[in-house]
Write the structure tokens for this entry.
Amino acid sequence: MKKENKYLLFALPSFILIFSIMLFPVGYAVVYSFTNYRLGREAKFIGLDNYINVLQDSEFASALGFTLILTVAAVLLQFVLGMILAMLLDNIHHFKKPISIMIYIPYFITAAAMGVIFRWMFMSNWGIMDQLLAAVGIYAPGWLDSAFWARVVVILGEVYQNTPFAVIILYAGLQSIPADQVEAAKIDGANSWQLFRSIKLPNLRQLIIIIFMMRTMDAFRLFDRVNVTTGGGPGISTETLAIYNYTTTFTKLRVGRGCAVGVITLLILAVIISIIMKVLRSKEVD
Amino acid sequence: MRTKRRIIIAASYIVLILVALISIFPIVYAVVIATKQPVDAFSTSFTWIYKPIFDNFKTLWIERGFTKYLCNTLIITGCCVLISVPTATLGAYGLIRNGGKFATRMLNSTLLLRMFPQMLLAIPYFIIATNLGLADTKFILVIIVVASNQPFALWLMRGFR
């Protein structure tokens, strides 16, 4: 056995875990997406009917549209804010621990619990947001009653809760940048923008790719927080693909069709992720 | 130059402390609501000064068996971390050292599995668990959580090379 191939053995436990547990369920869902299976009834093979039905459903189009808006807005904001906060944390010398822990807190709260808190905060009339805004003389809109503001609240929730993820990773990355590179650049007279552009950003590239990939995946499949905060409402304005999927599968019990939604979600995500990887990898210089 | 640097650091502190305060706000808000009388909790005039009551906590800890849920969560989280971190660290190390096409392909395929909407996997997971006689046990839950987080852990570890 070649030496390189021996290293693959190290990854064996990991891959056995993943493939033995995940492969069957995903395969099962893919197979059932071609049937008219409803919970408690016999399944019959119906070819691509589920896919055609789903793609023609206007509710699906609306859910997909909102999911795309949510993903793009939330992931970009999370990355930018996360980068700024990580750099600021890297800048200071005192009270690093308490400040960083406080900043990480939203990420530690269970998403569903955060959904409940957000729901209270943005309730019209007695929600604290309305009262805070009233204190500075702004008349708050009915947050969760208008389609636009409900969407804003959902995106805000996603940014609020998951920006710390970007901060944690980027801050750890910033600290692992070799000090000699930064020193050398400084001696060469690099200003802080050049330092950021040519030393810090290339060193963080792998981590940035991971943040974009993971956050995109999770934002695209966002379910719990939205379901608790707005329940997809008002109407279907904040319905994400995952909520659409959930109502199809577990409320209407159309498991076959729900699986088709899942496969479509997977395919769209795969395309988005491969684009992200292409774009970010193409910037590789070394 | 030195004053400029000082201003930057002072500004960093101000922004960070502001963000930190915003970050803990929901928790503070939740604590306030949890310790208020039900009538006052959701009133139209919010007050920060009030006489706290702890009835809700008493109900939760003593009557509702909160400790049991807490223990379950602790056990499952602990087991997941203890299994996930070593396997993923080892795996990522092996994959980086190998660095071949095959390793990259395997890594990408784990990502593909992670992209599938998790809730749809609930039904097949249930079928697996029942067939193995493991339904309603912590063991199968730990295995499933570890397996579904493994792709993420692998990728994260690989990022810090």
Chain B touches chain A through 69 residues (CB under 8 Å). Residues 2-34 of chain B form the longest helix (33 residues).
